[in-house]
Write a structure and sequence with these properties.
Elements (H helix, E strand, L loop, with lengths): L6 E3 L15 E8 L2 E8 L5 H15 L7 H6 L8 H16 L9 H6 L12 H8 L7 E4 L2 E4 L9 H18 L5 E5 L2 E5 L8 E6 L12 E7 L3 E7 L4 E4 L2 E4 L14 E8 L2 H11 L4 H9 L5 E7 L6 E5 L1 H6 L2
Antiparallel strand pairs: 1-8, 2-3, 3-6, 4-5, 6-7, 7-10, 8-9, 10-13, 11-12, 13-14, 14-15
Length: 332
């Protein structure tokens, strides 16, 4: 389940140099994990080769579309030792699953595939098929022992797409910091890791798209802008981009682990800010399968995250907003 690009960069100068006594800002862009990436950073030299190498290492661990990746081998039940990247994402996924009461669950890969949003395709969907798959879906049915993934049922599969792009942004951010970079913005598939200032010496800014249904991704009008003045991760999840319509009914890409069906909650978009992008990415997905009250109650118990929700107004039509107090101070 690769989420369509939902967070757009706004107000960021592309390539510029500060005054002559400072290092220039560089921009990198490309594609990875079936999505795009954009990286802006201030450095005495280009770091293209190191960034590419880091993304390649990440892909060989966590890309479910890569047949030789560790996650692909785990899904095929091959005897494989997981690496540190895999273990970090797996452990964070289990943490968020527990905190969200199972709203976030990386074991729903077979259900995602069934509905046509995953790395495999299915020919039909039925209640009987959903019920049979749910028998071997559930984060409590899988665990990590040392470097081995232990499954209660060999049919279990993992999909880290709702957390891995966020972690990829963190990995590149960590690389930049090891290289002495203090000012950067890393965006992979809409998930952002940022620190420092942009080329104008101001806080980085990210735009949140209006929740307009458009599976083509052409519509991209900005609803609000968030100022990122401190080191943080930002992720947005929404069901108004990645969906399809069959027999007159809309099916969104966010699958509810409890029902096995695409989520039909009123939340249209969930934007999360956390100390790291991996955490923000996972909770943004968890919010999408909850109602507004349940989501905000969960957030109150997790002080490290801030949220901005756009949800449908069932009474008056249109949509409404709800944000954490600190998030309100970051919105323009």
């Amino acid at each position: 389940m690769l989420k369509t690009l939902k967070t757009t960069l706004a107000g960021i100068v592309t390539f510029s140099s500060c005054v002559s006594c400072h290092d220039p800002y560089y921009e990198e862009s490309g594609s990875v994990f079936h999505t795009s990436y954009h990286i802006k950073y201030q450095s005495p030299a280009l770091l293209t080769d190191k960034i590419d190498a880091e993304l390649q290492t990440f892909s060989l661990s966590l890309n479910p579309f890569h047949p030789s990746s560790i996650i692909s081998k785990v899904n095929r039940n091959e005897d494989v030792d997981v690496d540190e990247l895999f273990a970090t994402v797996f452990n964070k996924a289990m943490e968020v699953s527990e905190n969200s009461g199972g709203a976030f669950d990386v074991t729903i890969a077979p259900l995602i595939n069934l509905w046509g949003f995953g790395f495999e395709k299915s020919d039909c969907v039925s209640q009987q098929k959903i019920d049979s798959i749910k028998m071997f879906v559930g984060y409590k049915k899988i665990r990590l022992e040392g470097k081995k993934v232990i499954k209660d049922d060999p049919r279990m599969m993992l999909n880290f797409s709702a957390i891995a792009k966020g972690y990829a942004s963190d990995i590149i951010a960590a690389l930049l910091e090891r290289e002495g970079v203090e000012n950067y913005l890393v965006e992979i598939g809409g998930e952002i890791a940022a620190k420092g200032k942009n080329p104008n010496g101001n806080c980085w800014q990210a735009g949140i798209s209006k929740p307009e249904e458009d599976s083509s991704g052409i519509k991209n009008e900005v609803e609000s802008i968030i100022r990122l003045c401190n080191k943080c991760g930002l992720a947005t999840s929404g069901n108004y981009r990645n969906y399809y319509v069959k027999d007159g009914k809309k099916y969104a890409h966010t699958i509810d682990p409890h029902t096995g069906y695409p989520s039909e909650q009123t939340i249209l978009s969930a934007t999360i800010i956390a100390p790291d992008c991996m955490t923000a990415d996972a909770y943004a997905t968890a919010f999408m399968v909850m109602d507004v009250e349940t989501a905000t109650r969960m957030a109150e118990k997790i002080p490290e995250i801030e949220y901005h929700l756009i949800y449908s107004d069932s009474i008056n039509g249109g949509y409404k907003f709800k944000s954490s107090e600190r998030m309100k101070t970051m919105l323009k």
